[in-house]
Design goal:
This protein has 355 residues and is α/β, with parallel strands linked by helices. The chain has 2 domains: 137 residues, 3-Layer(bba) Sandwich (Glucose Oxidase, domain 1), CATH 3.50.30; 197 residues, Rossmann fold. The chain has 10 helices and 19 strands. It has a 10-stranded mixed sheet with strand order 10-12-11-13-14-19-18-17-15-16, with helices on both faces. Helix 8 packs across helix 9. The longest helix has 11 residues. The radius of gyration is 20 Å and the shape is globular. The protein starts with a strand and ends in a 10-residue tail after the last helix.
């Protein structure tokens, strides 16, 4: 007899096995990555979502906290075909419901055909299909999570030291920790700032680069970060990853849009329009840049032609929709961080002004 149920917005209910008890709701999404489950589960970009793993066995190399990208699990729940005791126990300790022993192929196919949708989960002794369906009643669409940045951003500024060759002001909209470490490894002191940091704080740092991180939700709801980019455009080199690219594009008059089911995995092919070179990339996003505004598209996704890289004509803006730091995934695009810091090398060292 089943002790867990997964209810979808289209009316279907799946029987499953409870691995970590509880109820949960969120936008159902999937990742095609077959490794990196620790990194995926601790990626803040999965906030308010229910994460399904398309790879059938999750947990085959244990759980090690040095692989974590943040200090907690971010999806509201996790679904797998088969989940090991290591992962199930970790999620139970984190208070995150988890289920397995259901057909994840059908779930993934449903999302690909119908788009990301509301999902409700009930797991544990006494769970019923009605309990899972009831979770759908209060499931908020991702675009309606108006202040999701507050849930994932740092409360107080802190610095990841890298030698002091550069100063990078990194706006934390839900940052993966390996972004800061990738910059620090190249000699930058990375000043991690709250998602709603004010311009005066940034100006006092006098950074060589203003960098906007990845994060969850609709970029249209990150108004403070967008205004910050507008303030420092032309005064400080600008960079962004994932949500950061979308925020930078909006600050330059661009537009963003929600994708049907997004890009989530470690094998997304990206073509550079100047060189023609194709690299494999790690991605996790449900929104994309529909119009780059004043910026130039430099890279596109081979599968659907969505914008994967942007830059300014002046050369003081560079962004990526994918994750050059990977974790998990291929390291084909690690050179992006060198490109970011090269902008700092070319910057005239004059104090910035937040007025």
């Amino acid at each position: 007899m089943s002790d867990a149920y997964v209810a979808l917005a289209d009316g279907r209910v799946f029987e499953a096995r409870a691995r970590a008890p509880g109820t949960a709701r969120g936008e159902l999404v999937f990742t095609t990555a077959y490794t990196g489950y620790e990194e995926s589960l601790t990626d803040p970009s999965y906030e308010e979502q229910v994460l399904t793993f398309s790879y059938p066995l999750i947990g085959n190399y244990g759980v090690r906290d040095e692989r974590f990208e943040s200090d907690r699990v971010h999806p509201n729940a996790a679904i797998a075909r088969e989940m090991t005791e290591d992962v199930a126990g970790w999620l139970e300790r984190e208070g995150v419901p988890a289920v397995d022993h259901l057909d994840t192929r059908e779930l993934v196919t449903s999302v690909r055909e119908e788009g990301a949708m509301a999902c409700g989960i009930a797991a544990g002794p006494g769970a019923t299909p009605e309990d899972a369906k009831a979770q759908l009643d209060d499931c908020v669409a991702m675009s309606d999570h108006l202040d999701i940045g507050k849930q994932v951003s740092t409360d107080e500024p802190y610095t990841v030291e890298g030698g002091g060759e550069y100063d990078v002001a990194l706006v934390d909209c839900g940052m993966k920790g390996s972004i800061a470490s990738s910059l620090a490894e190249r000699g930058a002191d990375v000043h991690v700032l709250p998602y709603d940091v004010d311009g005066e704080t940034v100006a006092d740092l006098d950074p060589d680069v203003l960098f906007v991180s990845n994060g969850p939700g609709d970029p249209a709801n990150f108004e403070s970060a967008t205004a910050l980019v507008e303030t420092f455009a032309g005064e400080v080199p600008l960079a962004g990853i994932c949500l950061g690219q979308q925020i930078v594009a909006r600050a330059f008059g661009g537009e963003t849009e929600k994708m049907a089911f997004g890009h989530r995995g470690v094998n997304q092919p990206v073509r550079d329009l100047e060189t023609g070179r194709v690299v494999m990339t790690t991605q996790n996003h449900g929104y994309s840049v529909a119009d780059p505004g004043e910026l130039e598209v430099t890279q596109v996704n081979v599968n659907d032609d969505t914008a994967e890289g942007l830059r300014s004509v002046e050369g003081d803006v560079v962004t990526r929709q994918y994750h050059p730091e990977a974790n998990p995934g291929p390291h084909d695009s690690l050179g992006f961080f060198d490109e970011v810091l090269a902008m700092a090398d070319g910057r005239e060292r004059t104090a910035v002004n937040a007025d």
